[in-house]
């Protein structure tokens, strides 16, 4: 047997093996089952998810059973699940060979409320990723009034002809406003584990382009709005918000009447540390 003949035999065997492996992988690694597993869900008295949400998620994803699991891309399935189930967050979809896909989900939590630009009666409810979870025609009497932070309509609003169609979509804002709002919310939450202790946030821009953020603390005794916390600049927003809420809690613990719209806590940096000063803009 010549070397050339041996070479052709070896190449033939290699090709046959590759073909066989391809057939095995193609037939053996086909999607047959989809599971759903919760990573986080709110307590029964607070959840906005239906009892049969796991089955609904599997159906809404429109998974293509029989498709090769090795090459399956789940982005389209995730988009459909997220759109059709506003309160569902798809954290991940993992492949479990030979034929299982498992969807890991968690429940989205209302974080902000933003007014419709064309209809002042309509408020959209968004989570920390600015996904529209819901909307209401009477926010002051809704369940969201005491559990979300109001974004001042003069700072941000949403324009859409059909509010229902917007539910399930993600909203993006220019100038990183969403990032700034999230940092402030994190700072408030980091102090007292409840970002909704703030009634609202207003954003303003100076002539030199510097942004300022007014956190309005909540006071249920006088219609909702209480003392303000003024933050200037976009640096260290989490720390500034945390310091401001700490100062607010200390001041109002001594005198609850200070929690009124007439009072403001100014955040200043003194000797390298941020402090909150009540009604003292100059520090």
Describe, in plain words, how this protein is organized in 3D.
- Helices cover 29% and strands 28% of the residues.
- The chain is α/β, with parallel strands linked by helices and 283 residues long.
- Strand 9 and strand 10 form a beta hairpin.
Distance between the termini: 96 Å
Shape from CA axes?
Answer: elongated
- In helices, the fraction of residues equals 25-40%
What is the H/E string? HEHHEEEEEEHHEEEHEE
| Total number of beta strands | 12
Structural class: alpha/beta
* Radius of gyration from the alpha-carbon trace, in angstroms: 27 Å
| Low-pLDDT runs | 16-26
Write the layout of secondary structure elements.
Blueprint: H1 3-28, E1 33-40, H2 53-60, H3 75-84, E2 88-96, E3 100-107, E4 112-115, E5 123-126, E6 132-136, E7 149-151, H4 163-166, H5 177-192, E8 198-205, E9 211-219, E10 224-232, H6 237-254, E11 264-270, E12 273-278
Parallel strand pairs: 1-3, 4-7, 7-8, 10-11
Antiparallel strand pairs: 2-3, 4-5, 5-6, 8-9, 9-10, 11-12
Main attributes of the structure:
283 residues; alpha/beta; nine-stranded mixed β-sheet; 12 strands; 29% helix
